[in-house]
Amino acid sequence: MQMGFRWFGSADDPIKLQQIKQIPGVKQVVGALFDVPVGEVWPKAKIATLKKGINAAGLQMDVIESVNIHDDIKIGKPTRDKYIENYKTTIRNLAEYGVKVICYNFMPVFDWLRTDLHYQLADQSNVMAFEAEKLTSDPQEMIDQIKNNSKGFILPGWEPERLAEIKHLFDAYKDVDEKKLTDNLKYFLDAIIPVCEECDVRMAMHPDDPPRPLFGLPRIYKNRDDMVKIEELHESKYNSFTICTGSLGENPDNDVPAIIREFVRKDRAPFIHARNIKYTSRGNFHEAAHLSSEGSLDMYDVMKAMHDSGFDGYVRPDHGRNIWGEDGRPGYGLYDRALGATYLNGLWEALEKSDK
């Protein structure tokens, strides 16, 4: 298992690489290029600069998160082939600089959704939360709320240039149901997986967050059965999954450790986001510290499922609290995610030594 830490780059992240380097056990930075428009080729020069900076801090960059899929591909427009060719070139460019895993999603319009970015906990820390009753029928209201409460940060999946066209986007998706979205995913995978096999780069699809339809938009990666269907779209280990314990865990019917065991053993899960959530009622939750006792997920069971299945991929702590006066990017502060990484590494060490 290799522990990583998501970083949004020197231009848009108050966290410094040297601070990440000081977190015990963290060897990988999960990076991305946020200044390249969705659908365009990631230039080699920008990838080289990103990797050089990360390596100079004594860290590695084997995983890239958020080579986002252009909406024309998800919708199935005739122009999708141009964007797929660009994606193939980006895969080849990333492979040239040692990238082994690309985390992506296939969610229409919204990559993730929360109704509160600063939900206050009893200890006076704050987290992101989802309360279904706070959703309105107008998605523009949710966009405005996210934008007005993001502390000036551009949040992944909420890029202003896309969301400025929200009415146009919803119109474009009006005929895209679950079947059509799945068919469009297959078209995409059939085109890119041969390139992934050639370059030894694994695509790792992220679950829907929350794992339920919203605003009438389809969702196709919500549970174990959806994963089996996606797996069957293109039979290759390069068509694989990011297992996000928080996203899947938001539905209490999902047995997250069982999902980990099944797909790790089949070598279809090279990347895991390990985080905890706390249910407040059916379908509602807030995020929590990683410690099992702080949330509704048993993180020991999660790590044991990884260990028992022979997991040797990449993992990172995911959304955490803002604590100790930190006023950073919602969900992505330094301190609580650093505590999470240390806690997860401690569980892993205990599991490893229990085998001896």
UniProtKB/TrEMBL annotation:
Q: Which cofactor does it need?
A: Fe(2+); Mn(2+)
Q: Which InterPro entries match?
A: Man_deHydtase, Xyl_isomerase-like_sf
EC class (word): lyase
Annotated catalysed reactions: D-mannonate = 2-dehydro-3-deoxy-D-gluconate + H2O
Q: Tell me the GO molecular function terms.
A: mannonate dehydratase activity
Q: What is its EC number?
A: 4.2.1.8
* Top-level taxon: Bacteria
* Keywords for this protein: Iron, Lyase, Manganese
The pathway it acts in is: Carbohydrate metabolism; pentose and glucuronate interconversion
Q: Which NCBIfam families match?
A: PRK03906.1, uxuA
Which PANTHER family does the annotation name?
Answer: MANNONATE DEHYDRATASE
Q: Sum up the protein's function in the record's words.
A: Catalyzes the dehydration of D-mannonate.
Family stated for the protein in its record: Belongs to the mannonate dehydratase family.
Report the protein name in the record: Mannonate dehydratase
Record lineage: Bacteria, Bacillati, Bacillota, Bacilli, Lactobacillales
Gene encoding it? uxuA
